[in-house]
Design a protein that fits this description.
two-stranded parallel sheet
């Protein structure tokens, strides 16, 4: 069982430092250019460690200090509870969106994953 999946009271205490894996996830989030996104699984794959759930846990606990809206679900659905804030960022950055159909709950768009997904190409040399 990884430290990221431990209950809060069972996690080791960290003073000023984040867990090393969390630091690496947040560094990747900061590399994603404005208007582009990576999925939780993409981040884990880039790091060659963990999986989508571990990345999601890091983002939930520590992601507020980085452009969290650029790390998304693979289906492009906006982060529940943060939809409007994320949508504001996407619109400001020009992130490609798919407008919601009238049948979609809340009529919220999704990220257009085909157009917005970033593979790290132009910055892959700085692989973490």
């Amino acid at each position: 069982m990884s430290e990221e999946s431990l209950p809060g009271d069972a996690r080791p205490e960290y003073t000023d430092a984040l867990p090393e894996y969390a630091e690496r996830v947040l560094e990747v989030a900061e590399l994603i250019p404005a208007g582009r996104v990576m999925t939780y699984g993409d981040v884990a794959e880039w790091l060659e460690e963990g999986g989508p759930r571990q990345v999601g846990r890091v983002m939930a606990l520590y992601g507020g200090a980085v452009p969290w809206w650029r790390v998304v679900r693979a289906d492009g659905v906006l982060l529940p509870g943060h939809e409007l804030e994320a949508l504001g960022h996407y619109r400001a950055e020009g992130t490609p969106l798919k407008e919601a159909s009238r049948a979609a709950e809340g009529h919220l768009p999704r990220v257009d994953m085909r157009r917005a997904r970033w593979d790290g190409g132009e910055r892959a040399e700085g692989h973490i």
